[in-house]
Amino acid sequence: MSLAARRFSILSAALLLASATAPLLYAQQPLDPARERRIDEMMAKLTLTEKIALIGGESTWFTHPIPRVGLTSMRMSDGPAGLRSGIPAIAYPAPVTLAASWDPVLAQEMGASLGRDARVRDVDTLLAPAVNIYRAPMDGRNFEYLGEDPWLASRIAVGYIEGVQSQGVSATVKHFAMNNQEFNRHNASSDADERTMREIYLPAFEYAVKDAHVGAIMNSYNLVNGIHATQNGWLNNTLAKQEWGFDGVIMSDWISVYDGVAAANNGLDLEMPFAHYMSTEVLLSAVKSGQVSVATIDDKVRRILRLMLRFNMIDRKPDDSVSLFSESGDAVALKVAQEGIVLLKNEGHILPLDVDRTCILAVVGPNASPAVMGGGGSAIVDTYKSVSILQGVADFFYSAPSTSACPHRVLYDSGWPERYDVFHPTHFDKGLTQQIFTTRDWTGHAEEIVRPDLNEDRIVTSKTGSIRWTTEFTAPSAGKYFVIVHDGRAADRHNLSVDGQRLPPVTISPNELYYVPLPHPLAKGETVHIQLDYLPNDNEVYPGLGVLSENDILSARARRLASSADAVVIAAGFDKINEHEGMDRTFALPPLQDTMIRNLEALNPHTVLAITAGGNVDMNPWIDRTPALLYLWYPGEEGGVALADILFGVQNPEGKLPDSFAKRWEENPTFNSYYPQDKTPTSQPQIHYTEGVFLGYRYFDSPSVDKANVQPRFPFGFGLSYTTFAFSGLHLSRTTMHADDPLMVTLTVRNTGKVAGAEVAQVYVGENNPALPRPAYELKAFLKVRMQPGESRTLSLPLNRRSFAYWSEQDHNWKVDPGVFTIYAGDSSASLPLHAEVTLQ
Ligand code: BGC
Prior knowledge:
Mean pLDDT: 93
Number of helices: 20
Strand content: 15-25%
Bound molecules: beta-D-glucopyranose
CATH topology of the domain at 327-418 and 558-667: Rossmann fold
């Protein structure tokens, strides 16, 4: 089949997939009678003790084998962006990058590739995808998740799971449920009303079960409405197993069980990685005392065996002849990065860069090299390949033909000032007084000298005594200043005081220099008194002390490169050290990056800023002066190649935001409800989701919500391209209908620009006069199309009953009220030029 034909068949498959969502079509997966018989036979051979052993992990990644009955163990591995099975594997872009591609077909390809990676590593169950909804930029796991919208997240998750499972590997949808922050994750309770959960936080799980027939669900660490997920009977038994018809295994997160009997009775089937609580000891006596029934244990065992048989885990023999590394997987990683990177700003069309006119390209910034492929935590992938931004850009640039008039040069610097940028140049009015004490506490006699500056000279102490430097600094101009300290040896300790006030210990240490911000900005000519008390660990010390204005936070080399280059690519953002599970990150970029960006942008108007992050960041310090902004999310092992392709126009950017990017954290709908009041680590803080269903664009775009005209900086679904598209001809297959009738939305998209590119047609549905507060409109269908310049495509996007429904707490069901609905279409939640009405009777 030709590539174009294949793409077409995949697209029509996606269409079918999108249309097969009417609730009535959701049937429980019929159980395979032959498989159920084999389970019966196996169960008959197991003792109760063996059955209980089976429902607790044997070690980090394995369930218990029971060789007596020929039962092997099930092997699991993370995770959402690549295999973590102890053997290097392909590092795909972070799932949020995949969500930004708005391409469920690509999700299927990435899933299939991950499934293959798992199978050739003898992994039976992949611990992915992770589908929790984006509530706030600080959540340390946003990069693992799929954005703010339940429909987008569902379609990406379904594609991904189908891909993984097509390879004979079970997927695990996680973290069930409402793990939307990493703050105090074992104790925090995510509290929301049922409508909010049903409409926003649960659909991705629901569709994973109903549409993709996912093999496993992983419960989250947190509590949901006051009950830990692993013992939340409503989530596990009522919803997943009974209502959605889930026939697979609900497993715990790694150490997220808190009560064995409660977990056993409330739907948890497998405790991982060990049976701490659902142990033989606990459950045997619980069965004896009647607290847990044998039928309950049997159901868990039956589910585990069913999963193992369904994916052939028991009978499969390892096949070591298959290559562990696949070029096709690498190509998928590249494609996801190319499709998922979002162009947010391109003033004066400075992108794409013209290879013939760009002679010197400077690549500067902390994330340019080495490669920043993903966030941290259990999603880290040990990869055998990693293309940094520097390498990707340099490879591309040097392989492009250059002329003698314009020989190509790529220049690089991390941007952080080096010690020689700081210590000698600092002018201390009266030099520094250095005192070396023989004691360890700066008391007693001291050898004293005065020196002009303090820069790395080897200072020999009297056998590890203590040292004190005192000096004065006068600000040459008004502004913010930092005292910079270098302590030469990690084990040394130092205390810094300014004007007699001890400054807090410092954690900002790029390039091993400690930056201590002065407590207040200095006026021109203002003098401060600085004292550095230093406790060396050795009798040789290589210290440094200097003062740097905020405007000088840039290495001298980066300053030269940026001033002389034709264009500058700044690579900044988070990485696996500062954005990962188990903690929340800051909204602001990591320390001092804002300042570095501003300083670089002041030197060269042709700067392109490439940000690495799992969600929004505070852009206020630089956005007005940033001509071009590319959002990389986390672009995986081929990130450098993908970015170069976009920078030079080989790839037209086509990513679209899966989140709304607010201007300020205070303007987010969750600002008042993200963190609990009580932040003590031991308490069980409650996080009340008081914004309800008005999350992300559902908040920004709903005039009914009081928010003083606050608009996001970049709306949900937004992303620029090197070409332009026009939407026209919205047509509905009916204008009056019953809620159960299918509705087909057709519209035409035309590539009105000069280059080929892809656009995502987004269809939103809003009820004109809802009986209860509803978002103005909600995403209910989308389709991505690639088009040549001048090409037009008429697209058909199906809607069904659920597209119009809300969760009625009263009826305890999805409900569609008769009335007029508006169907909107366009290229972001804030740009919907087409609309038409349909009346539901
Ligand atoms: C994470 C899970 C992961 C598990 C196993 C936990 O810390 O929350 O997402 O699958 O570890 O690595």
